[in-house]
Amino acid sequence: MKGSLIIVGCFLLGAFLGWLKVLPAWTVQSDLSSYVLYALMLQVGIGIGSDAKLGQILRSIRPRLLLVPLATITGTLLFSALISFVIERWSLSECLAVSSGFAYYSLSSILISQLKEPTLGVQLASELGTVALMANIFREMFTLLGAPLFVRYFGRLAPICAGGATTMDTTLPVITRYAGNDLVFVSILHGILVDFSVPFLVSFFCQL
Amino acid sequence: MFTVISILFSGIFIGYITRRFPFWEKINRPITYTIYLLLFLLGISVGHNPQIMDNLATLGMQAFLLSAAGTLGSLCFAWLVYRFVFQRRKEAKE
Q1: How near does any CA of chain A get to the CA of B94, in Å?
Q2: In this complex, is the C-beta atom of B28 within 8 Å of any C-beta atom belonging to chain A?
Q3: Is B92 an interface residue toward A (CB < 8 Å)?
Q4: What is the signed CA dihedral for A26, A28, A32, A33, rounded to 10 degrees?
Q5: Is A138 in contact with A168 (CB distance < 8 Å)?
Q6: What does pTM read for this prediction?
Q7: CA-to-CA distance for A176 and A180, rounded, in angstroms?
Q8: Backbone angles phi, psi at B80, to 5 degrees
Q9: Which of A7, A188, B19, B24 suits a disulfide with A168, CB 3.0-4.6 Å?
Q10: Does this complex have an ipTM over 0.90?
Q11: Is residue A11 part of a domain?
């Protein structure tokens, strides 16, 4: 919770300072954020590769459990594709890129605003990045607030799938509370797998 | 484009071959701070951008539609999986 607030806070602080136009020009240039992004991706990769528990987790997966993240990804992309016809501003692949954040708002918004720059230009890429940020924050909020409703109308797995990439940390407490303690492992595994898929899917759709 | 993914994989590779080093256990801290920095930079480029600031409501609506659709899609498929996979298993056990 605190982490989420700090992340949003950093964004708002930057937005405020950017709006006031008090910062030197080099901070607005995208080169800086590209390099910081590369640094982030390197660290994320190292974090994944060096995780001692990773092998253990991968080996203990029962194939059936893979259906849960698969449901999340398929359902999200399908319905997002449908709604993209209603949203005139953005193309199908752009909408899919946004939805591929699966509530992982920090990484997806950063990736999209960077990756879309060559094709859309700084202006539109930042807009799409902002949409991604908001959309994925909303998704996390929907899950946190709607978990009991989801369980009631869509079954016990519902809040896990709704939570997307956040189900191993942020939404885990609310999931265990309303879906049951026995789903802890499913939720964590789901979170890890979906989290892992975000950079790949977002990058993929940004390039289409 | 591919740069990002290849850097990610390079990181995974480096992390894997050096996994014995206790050094990496603390990798989450720098990642968190890097994320803070990047969101800050994103915030700057957004705040600096009158077209975004003026159209927040529109962008927000697009964001809402996308997130609602995506969430709903996941919920529906979650229901399918729960109903046809997990519950059938349960019936088979009983």
Answers
A1: 19
A2: yes
A3: no
A4: 170
A5: no
A6: 0.78
A7: 5
A8: -60, -50
A9: A188
A10: no
A11: no
